[in-house]
Amino acid sequence: MSARSTDPSAAPSAGSLDIVLVKGGRTKIRYPAEVVSDDGDRITVRASWAGDGARDFGFVRFEPGDVFTEHYWRDRWYAVKEVRTADGTLKGWYCDITRPAVVDDRTVTVEDLDLDLWVSADRSRVLRLDEDEFAASGLAERDPEAAAAAVAALDALETLAHAGRLPGAAPH
C-alpha cells in the first residue's frame, strides 16, 4: 500500500467517501463518512456507528446513533476515533493500529493490524487491546518491519494518551 498519493487531484473534496477497513487481505467493513477536513497529511471524517445493532466491549458500548469523528494519517500507523453518543456526550477514543491510510477521491483505506487502544472520556482508563490477536496474526514473522511499526505506534499512542495529548483529542 502506498501511504500517500502524489497526485493532488486524488485528494477528496468536501463531501462523502467510504472508509474501508481491510484485515487479513479482505475487507472487514466498509461504511460511508463525511469529510470534515483534509490537510494533506491527516484526513478527518465523521460517520455514524456502522455496526449491526449495539456492541458491548465491556469497557464501552457502541450503539446506533453514536457518532465517530475519525482521524486518519497518510504517514502514521494508527487512526484515532472520537466516539460520542447521539446527544453529543463523549464516550472516549478508540484507536486502531493500522498501516498508513491510502486516500483517494472515493475512499480511505486502512489495513487493521489487530492492535487497539481505548481511552475513556475522562482519560482515567487507557486500555491496550487485542495484543493476543496481534501475536497470533503472524505479522511478526511475515513482515517484521510492519510488526515493529505497529508496536511502536501502540506504545506512542499510549504515552500520548497518558499525557493528555492524544492526536485528534482536545487537550485536558
UniProtKB/TrEMBL annotation:
InterPro entries documented for this protein: DUF402 (IPR007295), FomD-like_sf (IPR035930), Ntdp-like (IPR050212)
Keywords recorded for this protein, A-Z: Hydrolase
Domain DUF402: 31-163
Name of the protein described by the UniProt record: DUF402 domain-containing protein
Source organism: Streptomyces lichenis
